[in-house]
Amino acid sequence: MCSYLFVSMAYGILMEESGFAWYYSLLVSLTVYTGAFQFVLTTLLSASASIVTIAVTAFFMNSRQIFYSLSFVDDFGSMGIRKPYMIHTMTDETYAVNCTLELPDAEKKQIMFRVAFFSRCYWMIGAVIGGVLGQLIPFSMEGIDFCMTALFVIIFVDQWEKADNHFPALAGLGIGIICLLIFGENQFMLPALIIVSMLLVLYNVRKMGTAV
Amino acid sequence: MTGTEYILAAIAVSAVITFGLRALPFVLFRGGRSMPDWMKRLGQILPSAIMAVLIVYCLKGAKSNLFGTGIPGIAAVLVVAVSYKWKHNTFISIIAGTAVYLVMLRMM
After folding, report:
1. How far apart, in whole angstroms, are the C-alpha atoms of residue A206 and residue B54?
2. What number is the ipTM of this complex?
3. Residue A86 half-sphere exposure, CB side, CA atoms within 13 Å?
4. I want to staple A49 with a disulfide (CB 3.0 to 4.6 A). Which of A25, A44, A74, B108 is the partner?
5. Chain A closest CA to B26's CA: distance in Å?
6. What ranges do the domains of chain B cover?
7. Would you kindly state where each structural domain of chain A is located, as residue ranges?
8. Residue A33 near residue A88 (C-beta atoms within 8 A)
9. At what angle do helices A64-71 and B37-58 cross, to 10 degrees?
10. CB-based contact A149 B76, cutoff 8 Å
């Protein structure tokens, strides 16, 4: 939870440095509430990216969370009015925590709700503190956006360690770099995301073919 | 569209897409229907590829400004990766990497 608070503070500081006051950080944390994409959204907003770019990026970055929700269709399904809230709060972190829970049914739901609720509170508090801190800190925080890169590298290392096949990770790096060289800094993100997704769909189909 | 409208529209679009994706399985796989295998496999391989593209996105400045932000960025990424592999502590790795980046940025 300490790292959760820290990452959201870094987010608040980054928003402040990019010229968005703390209430924007709070608004995004309240409505979008998704760790990694919130950082990218900040850089897209300060680059005045088109709404379409933002939408497509959000789609690709958060598509992984389809697979998180999937694990909890049964659990959340029986949670009544708390269900939409549980869906909304399904992030990388709550997923990781919920996966480790081994409890009787009734108790498990209670705990899952609390995990979701407090994680979200921590996240919003951190974002506001970060925004205010960013205002108070007298010297330039230029470069603080690196904490976003650091977060992605950490997620990447985690995924690398869990995977038995590193082709997807390497394909992502390779295609990302090639697209950067071809399309340039401001244009490469969408082609890279689309090409790598198509490549992996094809790769997946071929793998299935050989497995049958 | 004014600046504020643009920002609010962007936030609204992001919020709707994010919630929609999280809710999708509840709509598609109600009543015990399970997910096809190919989709499950895609769910295992796609996230790390997307994270890799994002890391390239973070370091994109290296192309036009190798000595300004490129080398500090690459060095700091290595610090994060190695320290995280070693200790598996998110907090320490973010602090260490960001510190290296901030210091190197001011030295270059």
Report:
1. 26
2. 0.84
3. 26
4. A44
5. 6
6. 1-31
7. 2-139
8. yes
9. 140
10. yes
